[in-house]
Amino acid sequence: MPSENTFYGWFDDADQTVPSYEPPRDAPCLFCGTEIRADDVRTHSLFHQGDYAARSYFYRTHQTCAERDHTNTAMDGFVIDMIARNGD
Length: 88
Description:
Elements: E1 8-11, E2 42-47, E3 56-61, H1 63-67, H2 76-86
Antiparallel strand pairs: 1-3, 2-3
């Protein structure tokens, strides 16, 4: 598993109940950089079109940081760029 990846995880199959890879639950928030806490967390799901379309991806941020995002896309583009760079 990619131990250097602390930002996003994925499922390889729609029937999975446990992710193929799950980032640490106390990973840094992509908005503010501070540790995510269980009492202030939002999970963002995304599907990458293209080479990795079979997987579904997710990442976590603070709920409070996500609520301040007026684009409603959070860090989707940033995470998609990381996925492509890492080849995950």
